[in-house]
Amino acid sequence: MEIIDISWPLRPDTTAYKDHKTIIFTTKKTIDSDGVRESILTCGSHSGTHIDAPAHFIKDAETIDQAPLDRFVGPCKVVDLTHVQGAIHAHDLYDLDIEEGDFLLIKTSNSTLSATAPFNKDFVYLNASAAQYLVELDIGLIGFDYLGIERQQPDHQTHRLLMDADIMIVEGLRLGHVAAKSYFFVCLPLAVVGLEAAPARAILVGGL
Fold first, then answer.
1. CATH number of the domain enclosing 137
2. Cα-Cα-Cα-Cα dihedral of 115, 155, 100, 191, to 10°?
3. Which of 24, 66, 109, 207 has its CA 20 to 30 A from that of 17?
């Protein structure tokens, strides 16, 4: 059995969406002065690898603690779209083996960027036509390898299309070291209550 970590590492200089730095490590106690080490972690709900709940864009919708955990655990397919620049359109997905209920993780050239690089405003993203196509296929979850799945879209169409169809969205995956094939996916959000998103640890299990 092989376990592959696909999480974005959290540190104060971790890439932040639009460079809005939210990760702070504060030392509370040290071994030298207190005989124990203790720290305070401050971060945003969308820092690093994270899961968006429908409440992110839909009023009175499900918050992250209300999402059943089985929505984030199961077989998945990693697909390689590293050749696509700019927007991923529906036609970029037509030849892929995508079926109803699939957990789909999309590997793009975003994964070649350093985990501490300045925010790339020209990141590859999923446009509304691709989101609509995935809605029509009725997939169960989509994972994406940047801190956002969409870029400068009016009314956040990609998010809204997916969320209206009850498709879970995982952002901030690191897939550069991952081959395009099938795995078992585990990505559990922190048990925070009432928020629209939460950081998560994501892994792939292969060789089962």
1. 3.50.30.50
2. 60
3. 66
